[in-house]
Design goal:
Blueprint (H helix, E strand, L loop, with lengths): L1 H45 L7 H17 L18 H4 L1 H21 L3 H22 L5
Helix pairs in contact: 1-2, 2-4, 4-5
Length: 144
């Protein structure tokens, strides 16, 4: 009886750990998808394929700010092996990875304060989006 209870307890712990890992991976994937959606909208405005819209820019910056703050937390040591495009470099160079998120957050705050019209948007937003490319080159498996 004791062995059955111990086995059931260990199984429950294992299942809980697996679910927690999957949850963290799912949360960060959701976060990155939201960023991608906003980046497409912003990119269209930068390329003059869509009209400048300050409300959409502010919404994107709000999402980017949330990502800068919560992103590093979602790359937990136990989520290395999840179904994700995150490369091992995330955990091998964690300080560098976290520093890129911090820089992203600073650039988002600067842009949030500076962007008041289309001219300031076109001057500031590329600096924000450059952070995405820098991080993806080192810490994300290529897509496509």
């Amino acid at each position: 009886m004791k062995r059955s209870m111990i086995a059931a307890g260990l199984l429950a712990i294992g299942v809980t750990a697996a679910l927690a890992q999957a949850d963290v991976v799912a949360q960060r994937q959701k976060l990155m998808k939201e960023n991608a959606e906003h980046s497409r909208t912003i990119g269209a405005m930068l390329k003059d394929q869509a009209p400048f819209n300050l409300a959409q820019v502010q919404a994107a910056l709000k999402t980017f700010d949330h990502t800068a703050k919560t992103g590093p937390i979602l790359f937990t040591p136990d989520s290395k092996d999840g179904n994700s495009k995150a490369m091992p470099a995330v955990w091998e160079k964690k300080a560098e990875f976290d520093a890129l998120f911090a820089k992203f957050g600073q650039d988002v705050q600067t842009a949030h304060s500076a962007i008041k019209d289309e001219a300031s948007f076109k001057a500031e937003m590329p600096k924000v989006l450059q952070n995405c490319g820098t991080c993806h080159k080192t810490f994300r498996q290529p897509v496509g």
